[in-house]
Design a protein that fits this description.
This protein is an alpha/beta fold and 226 residues long. The protein is built from seven helices and six strands, in the order βααβαβαβααββα. Keywords: Magnesium, Metal-binding, Transferase.
């Protein structure tokens, strides 16, 4: 598998189920995300995308949003050097102009100092919406006065948030919701999708392995007939 994407859903509902505040769900979810990153790196998954925070999530209670921003900044502070050491190239993509200036500066610094000989690309989507990404790319095409005759899928992709991101092979969604929630729409034309009833904080490595085994047993035709 070249590109695995995970919609990490169910943090808040897990916290409510076990009688903890919503913040605890996000904290536990961040730990599971770290485990998924480690698993992907050890198992030669070249690209991993994690849906951390959508454009719609800004409408959540202010204290919850602030805590999610805190978790992102905490992760960057604690893990950026470790990721670089392990040759994992980190990209944070989305409408980042809505983040605090200090957080934007940290993200820019990480992007500028990223390793070139990476063994895995890690994409964290934050303040992200799939339709918005496509609209933003279309605006960049207009700003650059691109001729319609020159517009191809390959050219258009150059204006996306992560131009070199490959198509997604497999999407895992936790939290017992069966939708893709506006996640990386351009990049999943033929992605296989797996839905788990488990909330993200309780999604174990064994669950991840079961999902990947399910993917490996599927026959992908990419729209053609066998």
């Amino acid at each position: 598998m070249n590109h695995l994407a995970i919609i990490m859903d169910g943090n808040s509902r897990w916290a409510e189920k076990v009688g903890l505040p919503r913040f605890a769900g996000h904290e536990e979810g961040s730990k599971v995300a770290k485990q998924a990153i480690e698993y992907a790196a050890k198992n030669n998954i070249k690209n991993l995308s994690l849906f951390a925070f959508s454009t719609e999530n800004w409408q959540r209670p202010e204290d919850e949003v602030e805590y999610l921003l805190y978790l992102l900044e905490k992760y960057l502070d604690e893990e950026a050097k470790n990721l670089a050491k392990n040759k994992i190239k980190l990209f944070v993509i989305g409408r980042l102009e809505k983040l605090t200036h200090s957080l934007q500066d940290k993200i820019n610094q990480i992007h500028q100092t990223a390793v070139n000989d990476s063994v895995m690309n890690l994409y964290i989507t934050f303040s992200y919406g799939g339709r918005q990404e496509i609209v933003d790319a279309a605006k960049k095409c207009l700003i650059n006065k691109l001729n319609p005759e020159d517009l191809t899928e390959e050219t258009f992709q150059k204006f996306l948030y992560a131009p070199n991101m490959p198509d997604i092979d497999f999407v895992i969604r936790t939290g017992d919701r069966r939708r893709i929630s506006n996640f990386l729409l351009w990049h999943m034309p033929y992605a296989e999708i797996y839905f788990s009833e488990k909330y993200w904080p309780e999604f174990s490595q064994k669950d991840l392995e079961l999902a990947i085994n399910d993917y490996q047993n599927r026959i992908r035709t990419f729209g053609t007939r066998l």
